[in-house]
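Continued from yesterday's entry.
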Amino acid sequence: MKKYLILIAVACLGKGALAQQTGSFNSSVTFNGSVRTLANFVPTTYTAAQPHKLVIALHGMGDAAANYRNALVNALSFSAAFPNTILICPDGGNDQGRDFYQPAGDELIIEEAINYARTNYNIDTNEIILQGFSLGGRSALKYGLENTGKFKALLLNTPAIQGVKEAANEAIFDFDFAAANELPIYVTIGNNDPLYNEPVNRMVAQLVGNNGKVAYKIFTGAHTVPDFQNYPYTSFFNQPTSNGADAGIYSLNVPERSCDGNIGSGILFQNTGNVNLDSVRFVFGVGNNLDTVKWQGSLAPHESELINLPYFDAGNLATDHYDFKVSIAGINQFATDTFTDFNTLQKPVHIMQEVLSLPFEEHFSNETSLTKWAFNKSGDYFLPFEYYEEDAALFSLNSIFIFDNSGTREEVISPRLDLRNQGNVYLHFNVDYNYVKYTPDVLADTVFADTLEVLVSTDCGATYTSLFKKAGTDLSGHDEPLLNPLSLEAIAVAKDESKYRPFTIDVSQLAGQENVAFKFSYISALGGYIYLDDVSVSNSPVATKEVVVKQSVLNLFPNPVEGQLQVALNNGKSIESVIAYNMNGQEVLNSKGSGSSVQQIDVRHLAAGIYWLQLKSGNDWFKAKFIKQ
């Protein structure tokens, strides 16, 4: 009998010894039919007599639990920042990206990690923090907001919010932002993290708009977890407010353009202190010429409010792009703000009071020309309309390789144009555009084709009317789509003016209007690129700059000509239509194509002079001059 008692005691001792293991070590749990690793750290000072705090930490895309645990403990001062705290890093599994929400139900590994800690250690269940980095931070935000009763706080180090659509809860992966007031949330991100800076900014604004208990810190750096000792995480989790009167501005809305010099704006601000706010003094405007307004009301700690500021008069400013800035100058009868984080926000605004006369031409020959154009950016990193000097054109692209930004728009708005005292009016532009196609052996039989929509406003952007909307083969000047691109570099191809496709829109219905602006809106369908060039508005149905065609491709003979003009395409492609215009833009000849690469055109009826010949072949348009004797 004594022998058996000794064996039982040894067995119990062995179990106890395993349960009380300290330092860094790995364990495993059976989860969803497979074995998953838990990478653990238990302070060497651990004693079962004392309840310990717990941090569940979710690693980023492609990482592993042990690597992440080692980084937090050995390089990022976890023990110093979180004394008497056990750390458990569950592994994200074997799915692509090792995401904690793939496959469905995988997020419950978080609960398994908590159960493991509670089974083997003395855990203070009121002191459980859910932390995550990058894609793990995104998972921590979703799971934490949906299970606020399980956690004391959330710590999100660069949560990898997948674009501005996801931040706005317009994607499949959504967040319960309404629960943001139920627990403290600390967010950090580097100032040089272009994929995520704007999505995280907008995510934080969502939390603040729901009266969230939020601290938001932007550090100098890129996509990383900053040293834990750099920030007062535990003190914020214990008291998620500043000590005293404090406020912050978390979003600023300004129009894409001001036409009369008056700029309207709206802000979202929050009481981040531990005393009620009854007044906030805001300073706002452009440059050093600023206005002041005093908000009065009542905001309890964590409460937020959206307000519209008075119109700012920028009538003395020339046409150009400016930064519109709003700052907090005083709170509660002009007392000094306790902390200055998020006391100032600024956004670009385009001011254009002047109106240009026809003809208007823009060939984007240098960056100076952009001063008269306004931009409306979605906020995603890849890729708003941008100007590149080497291309002398505006460029944008979309792909399946970053975020699901389908439906988002990158937009550029033309200068204001005066169409009074005009008859026929035409908008011309060239595009080098292509879309993407994948074959079944790569990614099913799938086409991703972005869309270009052209709209017009006659009230400074308050409303727009669609004029043109094309995608795919209807927009492309290329013979084939981009086939099976496997990288962004394969989509961001160099501009090819020989593939420019010219478009002309008859906008004569706008004649008589004095405040006309055209918006070029590039709509993502996750596939394609576009170069926008040679935008002009005139009384001529023919653009002043067309596709440059080498003599070796298009031949006109004889030139000058008296009777029969021979048109030949030396690339072997067929001619579908031939149109001739005089130098006043009047159509003087319109002939159906021969269906071959050569065609005879009778020009005997034309008066002596110089003419433009415009030829269509497939998706290509060619143009050349000829002289009629």
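--- second protein ---
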Amino acid sequence: MSTSDRYDVIIIGTGAGGGTLAHRLAPTGKRILLVERGDFVPREKDNWSSRAVNVQAKYHTKDVWTDKDGRPLHPHTNYYVGGNTKFYGAALFRLREADFGELRHAGGISPPWPITYDELEAYYTEAERLYHVHGERGADPTDPWASAEYPHPAVSHEPRIQQLHDDLARRGLRPFHVPLGIMLDEQRPNASRCIRCETCDGFPCLVGAKSDAQIVCVEPALAHANVSLLTNARVTRLETSPSGREVSAVVVERLGRTQRYAADIVVSSCGAINSAALLLRSANDRHPNGLANGSGVVGRHYMGHINSVLLAISTTPNPTVFQKTLGINDFYFGDDGFRHPMGHISFVGKLDAIALSAGAPPFVPNMTLDAIAHHSLDFWLTSEDLPDPENRVTLDRTGDIVLNYTPNNVEGHTRLIRKLEFLLQHLDDHMHLVPRNLFVGNRIPLAGVAHQNGTIRFGEDPRSSALDRNCKAHDVDNLYVVDGSFFPSSGAVNPALTIMANALRVGDHLAARLGAGARAAEEAMA
């Protein structure tokens, strides 16, 4: 291995964790290599094509995993610079303050984190600034305390969503504006980078106005001469020194060739499923059960939330273009009738007839798919699933991913659906709640891994966690993990902002470890 193949830091993955970490470390002057399995998302008209994105799944990986019964699983995930943030809906929530402690659910206990909300708060504030988050502090009844206002005003509701907001408020609820990471200027629309289109949630942004990790973090990081990016490069394993205490080589398959790179610090940020698989594939004599797996927890405790998309079809038209602006958290921690957490209600991007054709809803009298699309409110419901060691990532005999998952803690989610149904029936006598057949029952299927987390949990005790509180492997001195793997519990909001905030926190730790903390801090404030 030549000296040109050695770096101060190698970061595997360029999404919410890896991209944000690269941005944080770039000002240190340390030599940094970003390794990305995919390439840049091609800029093309299909970026905004509902048929290409929703029906043909053009941008999904062609990888095939298997489930616990050996059936093929086609994961809804993407390998590109920017990771899954290229396609996310840009809803950027903080975990609730109570989510960091032990919470009793109907289905069991959600365990506490080794750090508190207070320790992460300043990094949440920085992440909101970095990712251009729009919101209204304090309108959400479960909002945790914050040291600063949102950097940008809340995204306004279009008339049909405003009507729903007002109807819900009249019933005593506290609907709020969803915090969104988009580069929108509603006061100066002609100068706004974001055009507030219908092809945002689930689509790559053709005009670069969604705050994804490529646009916000990777490209600015690459402006530093000390940062390099290797695309179309799949990391197949991590090799260690004879002692097993440090990663000595990052093995990469690229363009039909095997390459090796080395660094003082190696960071995995491939997503909770692929990071766990990478460590399991990296088993050796010193780590027979997988790298950094002395605790036996690597791959275990997989969580992805219990998610549903529900169509509320009404005689009232819904001409909304940008629908994902309203949220309801009144039942996040339960209510008087159910003293356990239920979860979060908001919206997906507005569904059109083409998207609906991929899984037409049950028969609605006298309504075509176009008519359904023009009259539906398209809700997204999220509830917390609990960490179960038997919900896990393993490998088959050829080293391919097996995802073993059985849903748990479902009562809260069932009650959340009933709550929404009750509310809508009392707002509009002609409203029907219809699950999309694209999903299993009402729920996003196992292949929907957008919220993946929990497979390499952090904690104080090396016997029950793989990472310490700084997300360094207990068993390997120079290995860190900064994707959603580190979560010991999942909460009931999108994990992206927490991954970003934690990457900034770990970035400060790494800068100090590399002796570059002061320089990075000075440039970040400049």
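The first helix runs from residue 18 to 25. The radius of gyration is 22 Å. Will compare against the first tomorrow.
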